[in-house]
Amino acid sequence: MDERTEIQSRRYIGSKAKLIPWIFDTIRNETAGVKSFCDMFAGTGVVANEAIKQYEKVVVNDLLYSNNVIYNAFWGKGRVNGKKLLRLFDEYNSLDSLELKPNYFSVNFGGKYFNELEAKKIGFVREDIEQRKDELSTKEYNILLASLIYGMDKIANTLGHYEAYIHKPIPHRAFILKPIKYESNKKVIIHMGDANLLARKIDADLVYIDPPYNSRQYSRFYHVYETLVKWNKPKLVGAAMKPPLENMSEYCSARARDAMQDLVKNLKTKYIVVSYNNTYNSKSSSSENKIRLEEIQEILDSVGKTKVFEHAHQFFNAGKTEFKDHKELLFVTEVK
Protein backbone atom coordinates (compact mmCIF):
# COMPACT_ATOMS: atom_id res chain seq x y z
CA MET A 1 0.00 0.00 0.00
CA ASP A 2 1.41 3.37 -1.06
CA GLU A 3 1.07 5.86 1.81
CA ARG A 4 2.77 8.73 0.03
CA THR A 5 0.90 12.03 0.00
CA GLU A 6 -1.28 12.75 -3.06
CA ILE A 7 -1.22 16.18 -4.72
CA GLN A 8 -4.82 17.01 -3.74
CA SER A 9 -4.14 16.43 -0.02
CA ARG A 10 -4.02 20.05 1.14
CA ARG A 11 -6.44 22.85 1.85
CA TYR A 12 -6.50 25.56 -0.79
CA ILE A 13 -8.95 28.30 -1.67
CA GLY A 14 -10.82 27.50 -4.89
CA SER A 15 -9.53 23.93 -5.16
CA LYS A 16 -11.23 21.96 -7.95
CA ALA A 17 -10.47 18.53 -6.42
CA LYS A 18 -14.16 17.59 -6.00
CA LEU A 19 -15.07 18.85 -9.48
CA ILE A 20 -12.48 16.89 -11.47
CA PRO A 21 -14.88 14.19 -12.81
CA TRP A 22 -17.43 16.79 -13.97
CA ILE A 23 -14.79 19.09 -15.53
CA PHE A 24 -13.15 16.32 -17.54
CA ASP A 25 -16.40 14.59 -18.53
CA THR A 26 -17.55 17.94 -19.95
CA ILE A 27 -14.24 18.50 -21.74
CA ARG A 28 -14.32 15.01 -23.30
CA ASN A 29 -17.91 15.49 -24.49
CA GLU A 30 -17.31 18.95 -25.98
CA THR A 31 -13.87 18.69 -27.59
CA ALA A 32 -12.14 16.55 -30.19
CA GLY A 33 -8.57 15.96 -31.31
CA VAL A 34 -6.99 17.34 -28.13
CA LYS A 35 -3.47 16.05 -27.54
CA SER A 36 -1.93 18.92 -25.54
CA PHE A 37 -3.37 20.66 -22.47
CA CYS A 38 -2.30 23.86 -20.71
CA ASP A 39 -3.35 24.77 -17.15
CA MET A 40 -2.65 28.51 -16.95
CA PHE A 41 -3.44 29.10 -13.24
CA ALA A 42 -2.68 25.65 -11.89
CA GLY A 43 -3.09 26.32 -8.14
CA THR A 44 -3.22 22.99 -6.33
CA GLY A 45 -2.29 21.18 -9.53
CA VAL A 46 -5.26 18.81 -9.34
CA VAL A 47 -6.58 19.72 -12.82
CA ALA A 48 -3.15 19.31 -14.38
CA ASN A 49 -2.71 16.03 -12.49
CA GLU A 50 -5.83 14.62 -14.18
CA ALA A 51 -4.81 16.06 -17.56
CA ILE A 52 -1.49 14.19 -17.31
CA LYS A 53 -3.43 10.92 -17.35
CA GLN A 54 -5.29 11.84 -20.53
CA TYR A 55 -3.09 13.95 -22.83
CA GLU A 56 0.28 13.64 -24.55
CA LYS A 57 1.64 16.99 -23.36
CA VAL A 58 0.65 19.10 -20.34
CA VAL A 59 1.85 22.66 -19.68
CA VAL A 60 1.51 23.82 -16.07
CA ASN A 61 1.85 27.42 -14.85
CA ASP A 62 1.37 29.37 -11.63
CA LEU A 63 2.70 32.61 -10.17
CA LEU A 64 3.60 31.28 -6.72
CA TYR A 65 7.05 29.97 -5.79
CA SER A 66 5.53 27.38 -3.46
CA ASN A 67 3.23 25.95 -6.14
CA ASN A 68 6.10 25.79 -8.60
CA VAL A 69 8.12 23.78 -6.07
CA ILE A 70 5.17 21.42 -5.64
CA TYR A 71 4.77 20.85 -9.40
CA ASN A 72 8.47 20.17 -9.82
CA ALA A 73 8.42 17.83 -6.83
CA PHE A 74 5.47 15.77 -8.10
CA TRP A 75 6.22 15.72 -11.84
CA GLY A 76 9.57 17.38 -12.59
CA LYS A 77 12.42 15.49 -14.17
CA GLY A 78 15.51 14.65 -12.11
CA ARG A 79 17.28 11.92 -10.20
CA VAL A 80 16.01 10.74 -6.83
CA ASN A 81 17.75 8.55 -4.25
CA GLY A 82 14.70 7.16 -2.47
CA LYS A 83 16.68 5.52 0.33
CA LYS A 84 18.51 8.77 1.10
CA LEU A 85 15.22 10.67 1.29
CA LEU A 86 13.63 8.08 3.59
CA ARG A 87 16.63 8.34 5.93
CA LEU A 88 16.11 12.10 6.05
CA PHE A 89 12.37 11.70 6.73
CA ASP A 90 13.18 9.33 9.60
CA GLU A 91 15.77 11.75 10.94
CA TYR A 92 13.39 14.71 10.83
CA ASN A 93 10.49 12.79 12.36
CA SER A 94 12.63 11.64 15.28
CA LEU A 95 13.56 15.20 16.30
CA ASP A 96 12.68 16.25 19.85
CA SER A 97 11.26 19.78 19.68
CA LEU A 98 12.12 20.39 23.34
CA GLU A 99 15.81 20.13 22.44
CA LEU A 100 15.62 22.59 19.54
CA LYS A 101 16.46 26.28 19.80
CA PRO A 102 14.11 29.03 18.58
CA ASN A 103 14.68 29.87 14.90
CA TYR A 104 13.47 32.29 12.23
CA PHE A 105 10.33 30.26 11.57
CA SER A 106 9.36 29.68 15.19
CA VAL A 107 10.02 33.29 16.22
CA ASN A 108 7.75 34.62 13.46
CA PHE A 109 5.06 31.96 13.19
CA GLY A 110 5.16 30.01 16.46
CA GLY A 111 2.22 30.64 18.77
CA LYS A 112 0.28 32.03 15.79
CA TYR A 113 -0.05 29.69 12.82
CA PHE A 114 1.61 26.76 14.59
CA ASN A 115 2.23 25.45 18.07
CA GLU A 116 5.57 26.81 19.37
CA LEU A 117 7.21 23.38 19.59
CA GLU A 118 6.13 22.27 16.13
CA ALA A 119 7.15 25.64 14.68
CA LYS A 120 10.67 25.04 16.02
CA LYS A 121 10.74 21.66 14.29
CA ILE A 122 9.48 23.08 10.97
CA GLY A 123 12.09 25.86 11.11
CA PHE A 124 14.88 23.42 11.99
CA VAL A 125 13.93 21.07 9.14
CA ARG A 126 13.75 23.94 6.64
CA GLU A 127 17.19 25.23 7.63
CA ASP A 128 18.65 21.74 7.48
CA ILE A 129 17.26 21.17 3.97
CA GLU A 130 18.97 24.41 2.90
CA GLN A 131 22.26 23.37 4.50
CA ARG A 132 22.12 20.04 2.63
CA LYS A 133 21.22 21.64 -0.71
CA ASP A 134 24.62 20.87 -2.28
CA GLU A 135 24.21 17.16 -1.56
CA LEU A 136 20.64 17.01 -2.93
CA SER A 137 19.49 16.95 -6.53
CA THR A 138 17.05 19.72 -7.49
CA LYS A 139 14.30 17.10 -7.61
CA GLU A 140 15.15 15.82 -4.10
CA TYR A 141 15.28 19.37 -2.76
CA ASN A 142 11.82 20.09 -4.18
CA ILE A 143 10.40 16.82 -2.82
CA LEU A 144 11.56 17.71 0.68
CA LEU A 145 10.10 21.23 0.47
CA ALA A 146 6.79 19.99 -0.96
CA SER A 147 6.55 17.32 1.75
CA LEU A 148 7.21 20.03 4.32
CA ILE A 149 4.33 22.15 2.96
CA TYR A 150 1.89 19.23 3.01
CA GLY A 151 2.96 18.29 6.54
CA MET A 152 2.51 21.89 7.75
CA ASP A 153 -0.97 22.09 6.24
CA LYS A 154 -2.12 19.19 8.43
CA ILE A 155 -1.35 21.04 11.69
CA ALA A 156 -1.75 24.73 10.78
CA ASN A 157 -3.86 26.80 13.18
CA THR A 158 -5.85 28.29 10.29
CA LEU A 159 -9.03 27.93 8.28
CA GLY A 160 -7.07 26.85 5.22
CA HIS A 161 -5.02 29.94 4.37
CA TYR A 162 -2.58 32.33 6.08
CA GLU A 163 -4.46 35.59 5.85
CA ALA A 164 -5.02 35.13 9.59
CA TYR A 165 -4.72 32.50 12.31
CA ILE A 166 -7.27 31.24 14.83
CA HIS A 167 -7.08 33.29 18.04
CA LYS A 168 -7.55 30.41 20.45
CA PRO A 169 -5.11 28.16 22.34
CA ILE A 170 -3.38 25.98 19.75
CA PRO A 171 -3.96 22.26 20.30
CA HIS A 172 -0.79 20.19 20.11
CA ARG A 173 -0.71 18.22 16.87
CA ALA A 174 2.56 16.51 16.04
CA PHE A 175 4.28 17.63 12.87
CA ILE A 176 4.95 14.53 10.75
CA LEU A 177 6.88 14.64 7.50
CA LYS A 178 5.57 12.17 4.90
CA PRO A 179 6.96 11.77 1.38
CA ILE A 180 4.80 12.97 -1.49
CA LYS A 181 3.87 10.71 -4.40
CA TYR A 182 6.55 11.92 -6.79
CA GLU A 183 7.42 10.80 -10.30
CA SER A 184 9.53 11.99 -13.22
CA ASN A 185 7.14 12.82 -16.05
CA LYS A 186 8.51 13.70 -19.46
CA LYS A 187 5.17 14.96 -20.80
CA VAL A 188 4.93 17.83 -18.28
CA ILE A 189 6.34 21.31 -18.98
CA ILE A 190 6.41 23.55 -15.89
CA HIS A 191 6.40 27.36 -15.87
CA MET A 192 6.23 29.98 -13.15
CA GLY A 193 5.09 33.39 -14.33
CA ASP A 194 2.52 35.79 -15.68
CA ALA A 195 -0.17 33.88 -17.60
CA ASN A 196 -0.66 36.79 -20.02
CA LEU A 197 3.00 36.68 -21.04
CA LEU A 198 2.98 32.89 -21.29
CA ALA A 199 -0.09 33.03 -23.55
CA ARG A 200 2.07 34.60 -26.25
CA LYS A 201 4.61 31.77 -26.09
CA ILE A 202 2.79 28.47 -25.62
CA ASP A 203 0.86 26.44 -28.16
CA ALA A 204 -1.64 23.86 -26.83
CA ASP A 205 -4.79 22.27 -28.23
CA LEU A 206 -6.74 23.17 -25.10
CA VAL A 207 -6.09 25.91 -22.54
CA TYR A 208 -7.80 25.67 -19.16
CA ILE A 209 -8.22 28.97 -17.31
CA ASP A 210 -9.13 29.24 -13.62
CA PRO A 211 -7.80 32.62 -12.44
CA PRO A 212 -8.50 34.24 -9.08
CA TYR A 213 -11.75 36.17 -9.35
CA ASN A 214 -11.86 38.35 -6.25
CA SER A 215 -9.52 40.79 -4.50
CA ARG A 216 -7.81 38.15 -2.36
CA GLN A 217 -4.27 37.74 -3.60
CA TYR A 218 -2.98 34.18 -3.40
CA SER A 219 0.57 35.37 -2.75
CA ARG A 220 -0.80 36.93 0.46
CA PHE A 221 -3.11 34.04 1.34
CA TYR A 222 -0.17 31.61 1.19
CA HIS A 223 2.66 33.94 2.22
CA VAL A 224 3.92 31.49 4.87
CA TYR A 225 4.66 28.92 2.14
CA GLU A 226 6.25 31.59 -0.05
CA THR A 227 8.52 32.68 2.81
CA LEU A 228 9.33 29.05 3.62
CA VAL A 229 10.25 28.11 0.06
CA LYS A 230 12.31 31.21 -0.78
CA TRP A 231 13.99 31.14 2.66
CA ASN A 232 15.52 34.58 2.25
CA LYS A 233 14.21 35.41 5.75
CA PRO A 234 12.66 38.83 5.08
CA LYS A 235 11.44 41.10 7.83
CA LEU A 236 7.78 40.24 8.39
CA VAL A 237 5.18 42.80 9.40
CA GLY A 238 1.62 43.05 10.73
CA ALA A 239 -0.44 40.67 12.79
CA ALA A 240 -0.34 38.11 9.96
CA MET A 241 3.49 38.33 9.68
CA LYS A 242 3.63 38.99 5.94
CA PRO A 243 6.69 39.70 3.76
CA PRO A 244 6.93 42.65 1.32
CA LEU A 245 4.46 42.59 -1.59
CA GLU A 246 5.37 40.28 -4.47
CA ASN A 247 3.62 38.35 -7.26
CA MET A 248 0.42 40.38 -7.14
CA SER A 249 -2.13 39.31 -9.75
CA GLU A 250 -4.04 41.77 -11.94
CA TYR A 251 -6.94 39.32 -11.84
CA CYS A 252 -7.53 40.41 -8.23
CA SER A 253 -7.82 44.07 -9.21
CA ALA A 254 -10.06 46.46 -11.15
CA ARG A 255 -7.94 45.56 -14.22
CA ALA A 256 -9.17 41.94 -14.16
CA ARG A 257 -11.50 42.23 -17.16
CA ASP A 258 -8.78 43.80 -19.34
CA ALA A 259 -6.31 41.14 -18.24
CA MET A 260 -8.73 38.35 -19.17
CA GLN A 261 -9.46 39.91 -22.55
CA ASP A 262 -5.74 40.23 -23.30
CA LEU A 263 -5.13 36.63 -22.26
CA VAL A 264 -7.91 35.15 -24.37
CA LYS A 265 -7.13 37.08 -27.55
CA ASN A 266 -3.45 36.03 -27.45
CA LEU A 267 -3.96 32.29 -26.96
CA LYS A 268 -2.96 29.95 -29.79
CA THR A 269 -5.35 27.07 -29.19
CA LYS A 270 -8.33 25.08 -30.49
CA TYR A 271 -10.33 25.22 -27.26
CA ILE A 272 -10.51 27.53 -24.25
CA VAL A 273 -12.11 26.16 -21.09
CA VAL A 274 -12.82 28.61 -18.26
CA SER A 275 -13.88 27.70 -14.72
CA TYR A 276 -15.97 30.34 -12.98
CA ASN A 277 -17.77 30.39 -9.65
CA ASN A 278 -20.72 32.66 -8.97
CA THR A 279 -19.49 34.46 -5.86
CA TYR A 280 -20.41 37.79 -7.47
CA ASN A 281 -23.45 38.05 -5.16
CA SER A 282 -21.27 37.87 -2.06
CA LYS A 283 -21.95 40.23 0.84
CA SER A 284 -18.19 40.60 1.33
CA SER A 285 -16.45 43.05 -1.03
CA SER A 286 -13.21 41.05 -0.87
CA SER A 287 -15.09 37.90 -1.94
CA GLU A 288 -16.98 39.58 -4.78
CA ASN A 289 -15.88 38.69 -8.29
CA LYS A 290 -13.82 41.24 -10.20
CA ILE A 291 -15.04 39.84 -13.54
CA ARG A 292 -18.75 39.37 -14.11
CA LEU A 293 -20.20 36.28 -15.75
CA GLU A 294 -21.51 38.37 -18.65
CA GLU A 295 -18.04 39.81 -19.25
CA ILE A 296 -16.50 36.33 -19.42
CA GLN A 297 -19.16 35.29 -21.92
CA GLU A 298 -18.55 38.38 -24.06
CA ILE A 299 -14.77 37.91 -24.08
CA LEU A 300 -15.01 34.24 -25.06
CA ASP A 301 -17.70 34.87 -27.69
CA SER A 302 -15.30 37.28 -29.38
CA VAL A 303 -12.92 34.41 -30.27
CA GLY A 304 -15.27 31.51 -30.94
CA LYS A 305 -18.43 29.54 -30.23
CA THR A 306 -19.06 29.18 -26.50
CA LYS A 307 -21.18 26.77 -24.45
CA VAL A 308 -21.82 27.16 -20.72
CA PHE A 309 -22.28 24.30 -18.25
CA GLU A 310 -23.11 24.48 -14.55
CA HIS A 311 -22.68 22.26 -11.53
CA ALA A 312 -23.91 22.73 -7.95
CA HIS A 313 -20.83 23.00 -5.76
CA GLN A 314 -20.05 23.69 -2.11
CA PHE A 315 -17.42 26.40 -2.37
CA PHE A 316 -14.38 26.04 -0.08
CA ASN A 317 -14.87 29.20 1.94
CA ALA A 318 -12.40 29.80 4.74
CA GLY A 319 -14.20 32.87 6.08
CA LYS A 320 -17.70 33.72 7.28
CA THR A 321 -19.13 34.85 3.95
CA GLU A 322 -22.16 32.82 2.90
CA PHE A 323 -22.75 31.82 -0.72
CA LYS A 324 -26.33 30.72 -1.36
CA ASP A 325 -27.20 28.57 -4.37
CA HIS A 326 -23.55 28.35 -5.26
CA LYS A 327 -22.67 26.99 -8.69
CA GLU A 328 -19.49 26.27 -10.57
CA LEU A 329 -19.70 27.27 -14.22
CA LEU A 330 -17.62 25.88 -17.05
CA PHE A 331 -17.29 27.79 -20.35
CA VAL A 332 -16.11 25.73 -23.31
CA THR A 333 -15.12 27.78 -26.35
CA GLU A 334 -14.23 26.31 -29.72
CA VAL A 335 -11.91 28.94 -31.14
CA LYS A 336 -12.63 30.21 -34.66
TrEMBL record:
* Record key words, sorted: Methyltransferase, S-adenosyl-L-methionine, Transferase
Under the heading SUPFAM superfamilies, the entry gives: S-adenosyl-L-methionine-dependent methyltransferases
Q: What is its EC number?
A: 2.1.1.72
Entry superkingdom: Bacteria
Tagged with keyword Transmembrane helix: no
Q: Does the keyword Metal-binding apply?
A: no
Task: Quote the protein name from its UniProt record.
Answer: site-specific DNA-methyltransferase (adenine-specific)
- Record the organism: Hallerella succinigenes
